């Protein structure tokens, strides 16, 4: 074990020296699995990287491009001109004086499945995977979600206190999965990141003995009513979770009050869930969870409600933040999932922000669930477009960040104890000691690496009739600008981006491509 740790740290420092001295992009080792595009193969000795952006003089911009044809965050530079191209099909006007929401970041979830898959690799390959997400030549994720105890992406049901009647939580203890699969991976990510990673916890279910169903799955709620002994115990369960993680030098930034609270009112729901109506959640926060967090010294932890589809907005927020309760004083934000977005209009986000401008909206879960016959679709470019479209749409309607689901899954899309397999930006092939970066991985990077925490969305008018062409702009904390363009169409689009202080960027955006531009004003 000592030799293995020395080997890992030796590789770490060699890579660190390489990054600092050369800062050159290592290209994708492309492989096709017969899908619309390619994946990039990483192993113990090789892994592609993203070249850091350069601070160019005024009049020049960095450009990072990914395409259906196989480019992956490839960097180049482009110069501004004094005039737009006469043949421009799209003109984008950047207006930094019009500022909207402040961004919190982008990231993914440290599930049991993620840890199991990362640890199935050799130590050098593990390093490359964690570096790919959190390192300076990776995507530089700044958000991380932690399931509180088990979820479906565990190998079995478990809670932190499986002792019936233990309302005082005398037997509360973190599980083996926390100590082996979550905490060590989080610590490694923190050790290589140059940014603070904002970590937030989400519970799927209380221990079975606390619930009306006496089961962590399916239909069921907490026993009794808000203010009662089971609600008090459940509130203190959150506090104990925060305390236990703090013992490992992991301080959480936030919590959601419940993952997908509507699932717990579905009969025969197959995996961990617990039902809440908004009035229940309001009273639980006001009478139990908010006071418990305050008494435990965690009043600075950002508490979020909902953590479910935006189809529930603005109704859910209106109920929780009603004037008949003081729940609002304990809540910082509203968490949303992307499932059912196709039937939930963005108006729900706009109305919610207008009614509660002091509460941030954060997208906390997304994954591809519909691939057939296999849930894992290696090289599927359409999935990358779905991710980029969702991020642009959400951020254009007041959402402050976007967290993916599992950071890494196996070739089947698991492990998952109820076989609820899905896709992931990184797929691990443990038998070959390889992992595969999906097009989704690079779609995430077009935002996570360049739209740093503290960036603000700014207005950008789009003069176009071109279909399947989307764009968004941000001003970063140092005053520089980042513009992301998604072209889902099958034709190239000649585009002119105008910054009044700098000039015009004239660039043909290839079909089926994603481009991030950054420049200093």
Offer a concise description of the structure.
The protein has 521 residues and is α/β, with parallel strands linked by helices. Helix content is 26%, strand content 26%. Strands 4-3-22-19-18-17-5-20-21 form a 9-stranded mixed beta sheet, with helices on one face. An 8-stranded parallel barrel has the order 6-7-8-9-10-11-12-13.
How does this model look, in words?
InterPro entries: GH, GH30_C, Glyco_hydro_30, Glyco_hydro_30_TIM-barrel. This is Glucosylceramidase. Belongs to the glycosyl hydrolase 30 family. The chain is of the alpha/beta class. The protein folds into 2 domains: 58-103 and 454-521, Golgi alpha-mannosidase II (Immunoglobulin-like, Sandwich); 107-367 and 380-411 and 439-448, TIM Barrel, CATH 3.20.20.80. 26% of the residues lie in helices and 26% in strands. The chain has 10 helices and 22 strands. It has helices at residues 2-21, 112-119, 123-134, 176-192, 229-246, 278-295, 315-320, 347-355, 381-395, 439-448, and strands at 30-31, 39-42, 60-67, 74-79, 90-102, 105-109, 143-148, 198-203, 254-256, 302-309, 333-337, 360-365, 399-406, 409-410, 426-429, 434-437, 456-463, 469-475, 481-487, 493-499, 503-509, 513-519. A 9-stranded mixed sheet has the order 4-3-22-19-18-17-5-20-21, with helices on one face. An 8-stranded parallel β-barrel has the order 6-7-8-9-10-11-12-13. A hairpin with a 3-residue loop joins strand 20 (493-499) and strand 21 (503-509). Helix 5 packs across helix 6. The longest helix is centred in the N-terminal third of the chain and has 20 residues, at 2-21. The protein is globular, with a radius of gyration of 23 Å. The protein starts with a helix and ends with a strand. The relative contact order is 0.17. Residues 18-22 have low confidence and may be disordered.
């Amino acid at each position: 074990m000592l030799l293995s740790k020395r080997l890992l740290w030796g590789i770490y420092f060699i890579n660190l020296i390489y990054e600092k001295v050369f800062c050159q992009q290592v290209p994708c080792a492309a492989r096709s699995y017969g899908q619309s595009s390619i994946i990039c193969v990483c192993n113990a000795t090789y892994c592609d990287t993203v070249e850091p952006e350069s601070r160019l003089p005024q009049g020049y911009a960095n450009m990072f491009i990914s395409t259906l044809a196989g480019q992956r965050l490839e960097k180049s530079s482009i110069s501004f001109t004094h005039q737009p191209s006469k043949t421009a099909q799209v003109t984008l006007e950047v207006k930094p004086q019009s500022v909207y929401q402040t961004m919190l970041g982008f990231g993914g979830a440290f599930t049991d499945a993620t840890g199991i898959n990362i640890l199935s690799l050799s130590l050098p390959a593990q390093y490359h995977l964690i570096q790919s997400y959190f390192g300076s030549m990776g995507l530089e994720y700044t958000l991380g979600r932690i399931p509180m105890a088990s979820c479906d992406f565990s190998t079995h049901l478990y809670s932190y206190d499986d002792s019936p009647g233990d309302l005082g939580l005398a037997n509360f203890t973190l599980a083996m999965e926390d100590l082996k699969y979550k905490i060590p991976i989080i610590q490694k990510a923190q050790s290589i990141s140059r940014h603070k990673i904002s970590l937030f916890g989400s519970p799927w279910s209380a221990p079975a003995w606390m619930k009306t169903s006496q089961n962590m799955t399916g239909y069921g709620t907490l026993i009794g009513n808000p203010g009662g002994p089971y609600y008090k115990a459940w509130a203190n369960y959150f506090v104990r979770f925060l305390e236990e993680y703090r013992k490992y030098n992991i301080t959480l930034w936030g919590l959601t009050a419940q993952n997908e609270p509507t699932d717990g009112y579905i009969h025969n729901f197959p995996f961990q869930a617990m039902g809440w109506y908004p009035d229940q959640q309001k009273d639980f926060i006001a009478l139990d969870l908010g006071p418990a967090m305050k008494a435990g010294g965690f009043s600075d932890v950002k508490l979020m409600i909902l953590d479910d589809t935006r189809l529930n907005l603005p109704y859910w927020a209106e109920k929780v933040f009603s004037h008949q309760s003081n729940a609002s004083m304990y809540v910082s934000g509203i968490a949303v999932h992307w499932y059912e977005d196709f039937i939930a209009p963005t108006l729900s986000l706009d109305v919610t922000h207008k009614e509660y401008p002091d509460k941030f909206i954060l997208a906390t879960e997304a994954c591809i669930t519909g691939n057939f016959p296999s849930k894992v679709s290696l090289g599927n470019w359409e999935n990358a477009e779905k991710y980029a479209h969702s991020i642009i749409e959400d951020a254009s309607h007041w959402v402050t960040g976007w967290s993916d689901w599992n950071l890494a899954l196996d070739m089947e899309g698991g492990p998952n104890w109820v076989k609820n397999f899905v896709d992931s930006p990184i797929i691990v092939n443990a038998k070959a000691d390889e992992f595969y970066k999906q097009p989704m991985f690079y779609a995430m990077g077009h935002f996570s690496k360049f739209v740093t925490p503290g960036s603000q969305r700014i207005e950008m008018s789009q003069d176009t009739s071109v279909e399947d062409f989307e764009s968004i702009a941000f001003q970063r904390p140092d005053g520089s600008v980042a513009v992301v363009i998604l072209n889902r169409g099958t034709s190239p689009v000649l585009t002119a981006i105008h910054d009044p202080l700098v000039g015009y960027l004239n660039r043909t955006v290839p079909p089926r491509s994603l481009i991030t531009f950054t420049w200093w004003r």
